Amino acid sequence: MSVVDRPSSKREEVLSRKFFGELEVLGNSSFRPDYVECLCSCGQVCNINFYNILEGKRVCCAWCKSPKTVKAREIKNFHRLTVVGHGQSSSDLKCECACGKIKDIPSLRLLNGDAKTCGCGYGRITQSDQCLQIKSFGRLQVIGKDEKAGRLKCICECGKVTTPTAHQLISGEVKSCGCLGGELAAERARNKGTMKVGQTYVSNSGDKVEVVEYIDCDNVFIRFPDGYVGKASAGNIRKGEIRNPYTKVVCGVGFMGEGNYDSKNKAYTHWNHMMQRCYTDNYGDTYTEAFVADTWHNYQNFAKWFETNWVGNSDVALDKDILIKGNKCYSPDTCCLVPENLNNFTCKADAIRGELPIGVRSRDYPEYTRYQAVMYKYGKLVHLGEFSSIKSAFQKYKEEKEKHAKILADKYFSQKLINLKTKNALYNYTVEVTD
């Protein structure tokens, strides 16, 4: 029966009765001709088809209809998040973070513990937090955060106030307000001439080094404050262009190490991004519990592993989830190099899929709700079918996803873009309703 054929007596019955379960009918809706505006007992105003109300299919708003949303609203407090109302979507709840920001978050993510903050980075030690704890960096003392985002207010021994970034302090790039540069130049001027064992020089980062052996102008051995002995040319030592390879210059954790791999190598970009994901607050809650194994703190170890496993493709990505589902550790045993398309294969899209299982989304019709199974194949969204129950839609998604994993495994293995270990992991890949 079309909208125009429906008898007006049905609408009048709904408007006259007023109360249906948790709903109070307020009047006609401007949303659609066959809808009425209702007020739910939870305080939410919504538009509902009046036939669904009369037949008892709808006795509350969409938020109260969802058990998970109701449960999340009853619990109310989730780590730093407090539920303060309904979100724009029926699967979302409006939450206030302890930092003051208000954000819509799916109720499923709240209940699963996947959402703990608004994304403000609380729970991980940021570089700014590290600087505020350490306090002293060369001649600088950290006295607080600056008004400019990402910068810290520091006072130098000479009395001048400066505002470097946290990264500059931790990496040793900045150790003074600038006064150190003039003194270094004067020190180098005094040390002009023949270099002798026992002489001390100052690097551009402020480290005092001692000459322990002089072979010739290209082979001078120097000792750093931490005891490390390295080799450099006399010219670079005089110019201060020397650096301890074991200084933790990346996120206060990673160091370059001794070896043939430098920052121009392709591996460096992947290593640096891995460190950024785990030890900075640039990625919100996504990598809150992720960490890098100690052996990969040394860039040389990571670069050697990368060189051994990389087959030369330009779209390579570092993946930690294919070999071990739910893995949080970046290490040689838990990671693999895969094409970018395959790296996106395990993405769960928690933030956008709402409270439904992975691969399932709902579609509301005037008189009923159906559930669609969908998945991405080669970057395009593919509709797998429409079902009357969530369970049937998820089962279809599960079958197609696991089947597609085997197709990708055969495709990329035949192209020699993945190894046998990664292929076997994809063949054994299973989809769970809790994913």
Features:
435 residues, 4-stranded antiparallel beta sheet, 15 helices, 23 strands, 30% helix, disordered N terminus
Describe this structure in a few short sentences.
The protein has 435 residues and is α+β, with helices and mostly antiparallel strands. It contains 15 helices and 23 strands.
Topology:
Blueprint lengths: L7 H10 L1 E2 L2 E6 L6 E6 L4 E5 H5 L7 H4 L1 H9 L1 E2 L2 E6 L5 E6 L4 E5 H6 L14 H8 L1 E2 L2 E6 L6 E5 L4 E2 L3 H5 L8 H12 L9 E3 L5 E9 L2 E5 L5 E4 L1 H6 L26 H14 L11 E2 L6 H11 L6 E4 L9 E2 L5 E4 H4 L6 H4 L6 E5 L4 E9 L2 E8 L2 H25 L5 H8 L8
Parallel strand pairs: 17-19
Antiparallel strand pairs: 1-2, 2-3, 3-4, 5-6, 6-7, 7-8, 9-10, 10-11, 11-12, 13-14, 14-15, 15-16, 18-20, 21-22, 22-23
How would you describe what is shown here?
The chain has 435 residues and is an alpha+beta fold. The protein folds into 5 domains: 8-64, no CATH class; 66-112, no CATH class; 127-170, no CATH class; 179-239, SH3 type barrels (Roll); 312-435, no CATH class. Helix content is 30%, strand content 25%. The chain has 15 helices and 23 strands. The protein has a 4-stranded antiparallel β-sheet with strand order 1-2-3-4. The chain has a 4-stranded antiparallel β-sheet with strand order 5-6-7-8. Strand 15 (219-223) and strand 16 (229-232) form a beta hairpin. Helix 14 (390-414) packs antiparallel against helix 15. The longest helix is centred in the C-terminal third of the chain and has 25 residues, at 390-414. It is elongated and about 105 Å long. The two termini are 41 Å apart.
